[in-house]
């Protein structure tokens, strides 16, 4: 199979398979969580559960002072990685074209040199996070295979994307093929790992906020 | 058709002075994308080069490749090269027809057995030999027969090189490329829809000068013309690097000559000489004229996802797949959710606590 | 080429951000001139092998300008030899008999090779003259 044929397969059938597994898997897991339901609180409501839930989704995005002081590295590295990943994925012009083709919506892109620099910063943050996980005794003790797998699946699209844009190493069609393939791998493994937190954190924040809001306390 | 005369003698006979011959060599070096210092080397080689016999077979093609080649009138460099070779058989260009033409072909093959160059344009149908025949002979039979005595084969145009438009989905004629059928001869692919004329004659010039096949890439294309992608030589590259794209064919970006990535340009994955050699004696090329590159020198460019869909877009309908997956996921989720609830109720009835482990074991 | 008001409306302006090949090319010419003075070595630059944005080639040629010499060759079509305003820097354009461009070079030398009379041609001319006088 030539490089061109490989790239066409990756942009076509492979992407279909990855989409099915990713979407089906994520929807099944979310549906299961929702349908499991929550224990009914028989006490009288002291406040609004819904308001508490919705507010908490946003308020938890700001770290509380205690956590920030105790785990400065985790909080800072985590934020840098997540924001960097978000910018690289959603504000690079060719990616926006992909989303506009699949979802029919588009938005302005950021200048490519900025996205390029952001990708580097994000990769550095991921490397720092791995180093921390390996060196901190508690982190090392707690880490399982899935933690390292998920880290690898996250950094591969960033690295392959950077190489593909700058056309370093292999032929450009091959680099493009590897980049899209790495994304498809991420999609396929996603629903079976803790990466589901991308969807479930909003549900968890809501539940926590709703419970507290119902009781009329701050969350 | 004297086949023994060298190119130098042939030119002198036409009244071309030494000065004219040197001008021809300088232009040929430029055409072959060789450094100007090579002109004397070319002069020395061409003077002694013998005129090779060339048989040109046209199969399932639109004649665009021949048209591309013959647009320029002699004596140009292209024209001279055609004078330099002995074109013994070519449907469109030859005066003869019918049995006389086939007899001429067979005579040329016999006289130069093992030494003639076979040029092919058009793809070869394999689903039914009757889809394309010449004088009652199927394309496939003629190709295999003529290929036997050829020194080398040049597949001109994307159809001969990779199957081209007949090969596009659903390929009703079973069209294949020359290299799909001939396995025991050196084949040079000169793809493009059509190829740039100077690329075709540049390959012939290489034969004349060096008597050998130029260095080929993994798809059998001469690296000297197909070694770089359009993207890597495109004058609009600075706009791509900065992220300045034309979004429609007539917006401000388009008027300012910004990058055409968003309009579907396949430049980044296409290898050809369009960005440097250009078309019509260096006048322009598609991107310079404001149209995204089609990727016409690559295999399967007709099925590559659409000329106006950017490279980062999927080639198939992902939206529909995602919608179906959501539907299926919701159905499966509801079913599983119902099963989970039923299990929970069952366990509660038995006055036992259900934990997540219970669900995980059976779920 | 015909000019129409419609064409004028749609004129494509090249942005200021061009490929910036003009400056490096002129530097290459400068190096070649130094070499020419040092050891008499000639340099030939093939203008068709460099990706120039629309307008850049003209900018380059305008910068080089025209000097004291303009020679025309008539062999297999015409060829133009112009010494630019920098002596030793020649712009050479080859055309076929249909006035289509088949080669474009910058030659840094004391005189382009093709302007010299060639030994073979001189020999043949001598033979013809001898026949004439005989």
CATH class of the largest domain in chain B: Alpha Beta
- Range of strand content of chain A: under 5%
What is the arithmetic mean of pLDDT of chain B?
85
User: Unreliable stretches of chain B, pLDDT < 50, 5 or more residues?
Assistant: none
Class computed from helices, strands and strand pairing of chain B: alpha/beta
Structural class of chain A: mainly alpha
TL;DR?
Chain A is mainly alpha-helical and 219 residues long.
Description:
- The complex is a heterotrimer of chains A (219), B (363) and C (134).
- By secondary structure, chain A is mainly α.
- Chain A has one domain (3-36, 65-215): Fumarate Reductase Cytochrome B subunit (Up-down Bundle).
- Chain A is 77% helix and 0% strand.
- Chain A is built from 11 helices and no strands.
- Chain B is of the alpha/beta class and 363 residues long.
- Chain B has 3 domains: 51-209 and 216-223, NADH:ubiquinone oxidoreductase-like, 20kDa subunit (Rossmann fold, 3-Layer(aba) Sandwich); 228-316, Cytochrome-c3 Hydrogenase, Chain A, domain 2, CATH 4.10.480; 319-362.
- Chain B contains 16 helices and 9 strands.
- Chain B has helices at residues 7-13, 18-31, 39-48, 64-70, 77-84, 98-111, 139-148, 157-162, 178-181, 197-210, 223-226, 230-233, 237-242, 252-255, 318-349, 356-362; strands at 53-58, 86-89, 116-121, 124-125, 133-134, 137-138, 150-156, 175-176, 187-190.
- Chain B has a 5-stranded parallel β-sheet, sandwiched between helices. Chain B has a two-stranded antiparallel sheet with strand order 4-8.
- In chain B, helix 4 packs across helix 10.
- Chain C has 134 residues and is α+β, with helices and mostly antiparallel strands.
- Chain C has a single domain (18-133), classed as HupH hydrogenase expression protein, C-terminal domain (Ribosomal Protein S8, Chain: A, domain 1), CATH 3.30.1370.
- Chain C is 35% helix and 22% strand.
- Chain C has 4 helices and 5 strands.
- In chain C, strands 1-5-4-3-2 form a 5-stranded antiparallel β-sheet.
- In chain C, a hairpin with a 5-residue loop joins strand 3 and strand 4.
- The N and C termini of chain C lie far apart (53 Å).
- Mean pLDDT of chain C is 83; it is low at 1-15.
- Chains in contact: A-B, B-C.
- Chains A and B meet through helix 1, helix 2, helix 6, helix 7 and helix 10 of A and helix 13 and helix 15 of B.
